[in-house]
């Protein structure tokens, strides 16, 4: 949990008093508890923050309460502005849900199995792995130990760019049925190749003092976004002639993914292996680098893999998904393990 900076107590006292006096003039009964000083609020944080807010809300005119939104948000770090805005705008019916969110946001590190199972869902959005590649959402539900990884994509379907390259007279264009069929094939290719391939575990202390082993098997999925701004990646899918090859790529540090209409079909790679371009590129979207011999540089995930698994990534042409084939191994889950540890603060292995 972040610490609150209380160096501006005097200034906060004055600000709270002035705003409280201003709000009093607009209320007929003059009954509210928003005159709390910063020092008083400080003494309540963090153990008493829920009680303080409950008491504050029970005697507060919600309209005048919004005047104190800014200082309150500073007092109750790390509670965010949006959460506090909900408190002041949604009214008493939603207070229990909001206070539960407060409890979740301020939960201390888990040390026992009982604490773990009573914890709110761990989750974060738009997580960027330390590898410098990829972005995804991840959540972990302690009620059933389910971990979900979701990559949000926005699809852009384009006609053939270079007709001369393929010896055709005019660009091939997508119809709506073809677009939907390609999206379905893409989803099936990704989930079948990447999802639920490996499990991670952690041990916590049970009520009887004995260790309890928790196991989770990450489910990986693709979600369609309605706009580029809401997506992790936007997939530009070019339509090319059947059985042709156009090449695919993922922009390093960006959102752009280049694919084509044939990338959900297996094609020959490195002479003796088969691979779907969409499946390989999805590895980059999870933050995993290339492992084939001619990649030209050390894989992006090499340092992370060595740190987590004490294993070096081999750079060679073989059946691995980030090389020439479609075999996903435990090292390709390194960014997921990193993210799981980060959101739960537990040492999964």
Question: What report would you give on this structure?
Answer:
35% of the residues lie in helices and 18% in strands. The protein is of the alpha/beta class and 349 residues long. It has two domains: 9-105, no CATH class; 122-344, no CATH class. Strands 1, 2, 3, 6, 7, 8 and 9 form a seven-stranded mixed sheet that branches. Strands 4-5 form a two-stranded antiparallel sheet. Strands 10-11 form a two-stranded antiparallel ribbon. Mean pLDDT is 80; it is low at 1-13, 23-39, 41-47 and 60-79.
Secondary structure: elements and pairs:
Elements: H1 9-24, H2 38-44, H3 49-58, H4 62-65, H5 69-75, H6 81-90, H7 95-105, H8 113-118, E1 122-127, E2 136-141, E3 146-158, H9 163-166, H10 176-194, E4 200-205, E5 211-216, E6 219-224, E7 233-238, E8 249-250, E9 256-260, E10 267-269, E11 273-275, H11 277-285, H12 302-309, H13 334-344
Parallel strand pairs: 3-6, 3-7, 7-9
Antiparallel strand pairs: 1-2, 2-3, 4-5, 8-9, 10-11
Helix pairs in contact: 5-6, 6-7, 12-13
